[in-house]
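Lecture 7 notes: from sequence to structure.
We start with the chain below.
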Amino acid sequence: MRTSPQLAPRRRMTGQNVWLESAVAEARTPGNEYKFEVLDSEDAVGDAMLKELLDQAAGKSGDINVILLGGRGAQAMYRKIRALAETSEIDDLLGRLNVFTQDALAPMRMANGLSFVRDFERLLGDDFFSKVKSFTPMLTETDDLETTLVRYLGRLEDLGGIDLFFLGLGPEANSASHLCYIKPGSGATYKDVAGVIPISESILEHHISKFKAGGSEISETDETECRAATHILTLGPAAILGARKIVQSIVDASTAPAKVDSFARLISTALSNEPDKLARQLDENPGLWIRLHKNVKSFVLSDLVNQSI
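Predicted C-alpha cells for the same chain:
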C-alpha cells in the first residue's frame, strides 16, 4: 500500500460507497493455495497468533506496523499480550509497535463501549498502550470522515506500510463474507485502499452481537448511539493485499453460526483466471480477497470446519 503525498488516493464513488483509490496498487491473480490450520481451542489460536507477531518482530529490525482485529478473533491473543505487558518481558517488542485499527462505525464517540478502540483498551490494558510506540485509531468523532481517513492512510504510509494484518471473516447473506467491513456489492477493487460505506442492518447487528458475545460492557446509551451510526470506515483490498503478512483467525462459529457456510464457500470457490469474472467474484464475496495474498496464516477452530468440509 502506498499513499505518499505525490500519489494521494483518488476519490471514487460506486453507488453510495466512497472508495479511496491508490495509484500504485497492483492487480493480483489466483494461483495461491489457501491453507488453514485447525486448532483445538481459542487459547491455542491466541498462542499461534502471538507467535506470528513475535516471529515478525524477530525477522525485522526497527518498527513493526500492525493492524488490530476487532471482535472475538484476537481476544485470546490480546489477553496473553496484556499479561506480558504487565511485566517487562516484551517491552522491547512493544516499544517497536505502531498499532492501527482496520475499521470503525461512524459517526460515534470514541468513548462508546461499542467502538473498537474502547474494546482494545479493555482487552489489552493500560500497560500495553503506555508502552507501544504509537496507537493510531480511525477517528469517528468528526464532521469530515473522508479527510480524516486520508490522514490516517498518510500516517500508515509515512511509517512504511503494513507489516502484519490481523484479519477475521464476517458472515454475509448467501454464504458470502466480508473482510474488514468490505461488503458484498460495494464495488471495491484491488486499487481501493480504504472506503467510507453506508451501514447495513446486517453488519450493525453482527457488530453489536459480537461485542456482547465477547463480554464488552455496553450501556443502553452506547447501543442507541451505535444504532444511529450511518457509515463504516474500512481499509480496502489494496491495504489487505499490500500487507507483508496476514494472520487470519476465526474462532466464533459457535456464536456466529453463519460463518460455517461462509467459510465453506470461501474454501470451495474456484477463482476465475479471467479478470472481469474474478472481479465479479470478489465483489459478490469479499472474503475471497484473502486468497489472492501470497503470505497468509489462517487459524480456525474445529466447529467452523466440521460442517464445512
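Points to note: The first strand starts at residue 10 and ends at 14. The chain has a mean pLDDT of 92.
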